[in-house]
Amino acid sequence: MIVIVAAIIGAILGWRRAVGLGGTGRDRAQYAAGFAIAFAVVGLFATVIIDRMM
Questions:
Q1: Which of 3, 4, 12, 22 is 20 to 30 A distant from 51 in Cα terms?
Q2: Alpha helix locations (H) across the chain?
């Protein structure tokens, strides 16, 4: 669950970042995908750490 939420938040933040930089639609999609992947990896690590603690 954390991974999905993190990926969605990352995509939104990536999209907003590309809009702020004046990117085209392709730039926005690339930033959204890149941020979503990065945030999903962080969310995956958070999930594993939380699971190991319990």
A1: 12
A2: 2-20, 25-53
